TrEMBL record:
GO terms for molecular function: hydrolase activity, acting on carbon-nitrogen (but not peptide) bonds, in linear amides; peptidase activity. This is Isoaspartyl peptidase. SUPFAM superfamilies: N-terminal nucleophile aminohydrolases (Ntn hydrolases) (SSF56235). The active site is at 218 (nucleophile). It comes from Shewanella insulae.
Length: 353
């Protein structure tokens, strides 16, 4: 008995069309711009106070982080993974105020904040005041991907971490000699400031006496992948000698972190209270979206005009849908690195290099 003949419904013309679609899709992926930018905090970074060896250590770590994120993008990986990959390297280094290098609170412990945002979906995740999380940006990602919430804080955030199979680390993991010395120095400055106050010491007034470097320090990354998706993430140990559960801008979506496809991605570093009040990350993206300003113009207007006029100090890394990068800051320096598709990494600390 002869078997029935099975005729293919795929005609030569249809096959040719499908092949053309695959080729065009592949070509689009190859031509789609991709970029990444990272920062390790802004502040009074004096050339005179950094030895050549210290400068090189910062530059090497920044290059390591930006290159790691770039490799994710180069292989077709997504922007969120590129962001977390780069930030993890900075969090694991004692050089930066995030993760291992987190500053001390007034009580001699460490409280860390982080946030991440997916420009494709506008989903976001954040954690605040965590004390036992080695890489807070990873927990922020889990909040975004594995919970119905945007921000979790303190003990509750760490209970959620355990439910997601995170390992908690002892608080001593974050102890470093250099940060402890900063704590001692900052407390001495606070005490000196309070002694000048008549009557009851004024906590707010005494904090104002602290140098800028005690008030901020952050790491962050923004990325554009080959699929055209933007992402941003920020992680920090907060302010040296912070008290009363203080939380800055880093975990606040729209202040320290923001990303939206076809618009921009931003990660901020600076005096958090100002970045919250002036909605810095969101304001930059709003200027791009509604006023059709370039990412360079929008970021510069917010950092070097609006923010500085109000007394706010710091900087941002910002990226648009075409892979253009802006890194404005109104402080003496900002640790940062950028890398665009097909180009080598650029690592910078001051305005000129």
């Amino acid at each position: 008995m002869r078997k029935p003949t099975v005729r293919s419904s795929i005609t030569p013309s249809l096959l040719a069309g499908l092949m053309g679609l695959l080729i065009s899709t592949s070509a689009l992926a190859e031509t789609q711009p991709f970029s990444i930018a990272i920062h390790g905090g802004a502040g009074t970074i004096s050339k005179a106070k950094l030895t050549e060896a210290q400068q090189q250590a910062y530059r090497d770590k920044l290059k390591e982080a930006v290159d790691a994120g770039y490799k994710v993008l180069e292989k077709g990986g997504d922007s969120l993974t590129a962001v977390t990959t780069a930030i993890n390297i900075l969090e694991d280094s004692p050089l930066f105020n995030a993760g291992k290098g987190a500053v001390y609170t007034y009580d001699g412990t460490h409280e860390m904040d982080a946030s991440i945002m997916d420009g494709r979906t506008l989903n976001a995740g954040a954690v605040a005041g965590v004390k036992h999380i080695k890489n807070p940006i990873n927990l922020a990602r889990a909040v975004m991907d594995k919970s119905p919430h945007v921000m979790l804080s303190g003990q509750g955030a760490e209970e959620f971490a355990l439910s997601q199979d995170f390992s908690l680390v002892p608080v001593t993991y974050f102890d470093t000699d250099s940060r402890y010395q900063q704590l001692i120095d900052a407390k001495a400055k606070l005490k000196a400031a309070e002694s000048k106050e008549a009557g009851k010491p004024d906590y707010q007034a005494s904090v104002n006496y602290l140098d800028l470097d005690y008030k901020f320090g952050t790491v962050g990354a923004v990325a554009l992948d080959k699929q055209g998706n933007l992402a941003a993430g920020t992680s920090t140990g907060g302010m040296t000698v912070k008290r009363f559960g203080r939380i800055g801008d880093s975990p606040v979506i729209g202040a320290g972190t923001y990303a939206e496809n076809q618009v921009c991605a931003v990660s901020a570093t600076g005096h958090g209270e100002y970045f919250i009040r002036y909605h810095v990350a969101g304001d930059i993206c709003a200027k791009v979206k509604y006023q059709q300003k370039s990412i360079l113009q929008a970021a510069d207007e917010v950092i070097n005009q609006r923010l500085i006029t109000a007394g706010g100090t710091g900087g941002v890394i910002a990226l648009d849908q075409r892979g253009n990068i802006a890194t404005p800051f109104n402080t003496e320096g900002m640790y940062r690195a950028t890398r665009k598709g097909g180009e080598q990494a650029k690592v910078m600390i001051w305005q000129d290099n």
